[in-house]
């Protein structure tokens, strides 16, 4: 009976996380960030890219973008220890040829906290999550009678998307901490 309850609880959590992909703004409101004044000093960046030589994405530049956004919101990046929120960034994408690419950037603020379900266990909680994605391909323009390539290098478009999400995070931190 206990196993069935635990399984049911895990399914509820899994469904909630799956739904967060489609409804990130509703499930991770800015109010979740209230009271957070510092985050872990290490910002993890995960890259999962096909055609990586064309992407040329630098994880340090992504970290720098996120740190600047956090600093602009008054959030220090010198924390450590259990319960201190962590920030992780992810870039997933593939090139489509001719300067085109499909990619998504994601920023997550999460923390490991004691489990409310069982003693001596901890769970990872997502406080805030946002995604920006883009699909840019080479296309034919009938008026110009020529192929149009997406503008600019792929890495700069990825950095611009990460800047957009980081700015959203900074804005939500500012909104959350004004409400104190």
Low-confidence stretches: 1-25
How would a crystallographer describe the biggest sheet?
A: 4 strands, mixed
Shape: elongated
Class by SSE composition: alpha/beta
Mean pLDDT: 82
Proportion of helical residues? 25-40%
Q: What is the element string, with H for helices and E for strands?
A: HHEEHHEEEEEEH
- How many individual helices? 5
Radius of gyration: 19 Å
Query: What's the quaternary structure here?
Result: single chain
Distance between the termini: 42 Å
β-strand percent reads 25-35%
Side by side, the strands of the main sheet go 2-4-5-6
- Count of DSSP E strands? 8
Structure in words:
The chain is α/β, with parallel strands linked by helices and 180 residues long. Helices cover 38% and strands 34% of the residues. The strands form 3 sheets. It has a 4-stranded mixed β-sheet. The chain has a two-stranded parallel ribbon with strand order 1-3. Helix 4 packs parallel to helix 5. The protein starts with a helix and ends with a helix.
Fold blueprint:
Blueprint: H1 2-22, H2 24-27, E1 38-40, E2 44-50, H3 52-55, H4 59-72, E3 76-79, E4 86-97, E5 100-114, E6 122-136, E7 139-141, E8 146-148, H5 154-178
Could you name the key traits of this structure?
two-stranded parallel ribbon; 34% strand; alpha/beta; disordered N terminus; 5 helices; 38% helix; 8 strands; 180 residues; 4-stranded mixed β-sheet
């Amino acid at each position: 009976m206990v196993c069935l309850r635990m399984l049911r609880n895990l399914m509820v959590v899994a469904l909630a996380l799956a739904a967060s992909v489609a409804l990130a703004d509703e499930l991770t409101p800015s109010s979740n960030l209230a009271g957070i004044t510092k985050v872990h000093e290490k910002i993890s960046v995960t890259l999962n890219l096909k055609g990586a030589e064309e992407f040329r994405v630098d994880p340090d530049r992504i970290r720098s973008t996120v740190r600047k956004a956090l600093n602009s919101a008054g959030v220090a990046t010198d924390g450590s220890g259990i319960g201190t929120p962590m920030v992780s960034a992810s870039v997933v994408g593939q090139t489509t040829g001719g300067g085109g690419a499909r990619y998504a950037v994601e920023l997550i603020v999460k923390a490991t906290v004691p489990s409310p379900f069982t003693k001596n266990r901890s769970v990872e909680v997502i406080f805030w999550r946002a995604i920006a994605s883009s699909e840019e391909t080479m296309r034919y323009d009938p008026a110009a009678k020529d192929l149009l390539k997406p503008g600019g290098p792929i890495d700069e478009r990825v950095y611009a998307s990460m800047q957009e999400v980081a700015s959203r995070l900074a804005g939500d931190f500012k909104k959350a901490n004004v409400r104190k």
